[in-house]
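Translate sequence into C-alpha cells.
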Amino acid sequence: MKFAVVIPAYNVAPTLAATIQAWRAATPASIVVIDDGSSDNSADIASRAGANVIRLAQNSGRGAARARGMQETGTPYVLMCDAALKPEGDFISPALSWLEEARVAAVFAHIVQPEGRTVVERWRGRHLFKSQPVALNRRALLATGLCMLRREAIQETGGFDPTLRSGEDAHLGHRLLGAGWDVVADPALRAECFSRDTANSVLARYARWNSPRGLRGRRWLRQLAYAMRTMVREDLRARDPLAAFLSLAVPFYQLRRR
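Result follows.
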C-alpha cells in the first residue's frame, strides 16, 4: 500500500471504534492508533477493532502523537484522521490523485457535521465548521483533522514538533509553505464530525484551532470584540440565544488557557 492510516487518540472511547470501522471499510491499508496516554479504554477499543495500537507512556499532546504516527509507518504517504471523524464520500482516491503532483505535500478535507441537536452542536456548526471553502486553495494552512501527507515533504521540513500540545498542524503548515510545497484544501473533500462535545470541550477545540498559545493584550481585546459583535449576533440571528452565552465565554476561555 502507498499509505497507512494514523489515528491519534486520547480518551476517545465513544467515537474511536466508528472511525476505525469507517477506514477498515474503505481501505485494506494498515491502521495505526497512537494512544496518547488515555485514561479510558481507548487502547482496548482500538485493539478489538483491528488496529495496531501504539501506547505512549503518558499524555504528551498532539504534536508527539502525530510525530510518533509518522515514525511508526514507513509508507510514502500517511493518512491522518482524528478519532471523531469519518470521510463523507471518497477521500482516498482524490487525495492520492493530488499527491501525484510532485510539489503537493498534503491535501485535507473540510469538517462538517449533521444538523446540530444540542446548543453545543449548533454552536459548533456555526462557529467552528462554518468556513466551507468555496474555491480550491493550493496554498492553504495545513489542517490535520483528515488529511493525506507526503512523507518526503514532512521529513524535509522537520516533521511534527513533539513538544507542541496543540497547533502542531499550523506550525508544520507554515514550514511546508515556506519551503515551497503546496498544501491543498479541496472543497470537494469533506470529513463528518460525529463527536458529542460538551461546552468545555467545544471551547477547548475553538481555542486550540484559533489561539493555541493563548491570547493577551490587544489580541485578546480583538477576540472579545469579535465575540460580542459577530459571534453573538450570529447566534441571535439564528434564534439560538443560549448559544450566545458560549460565544461570550470564548475570549475568557482563551485567556484562561495560558
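Note: The first strand starts at residue 3 and ends at 9.
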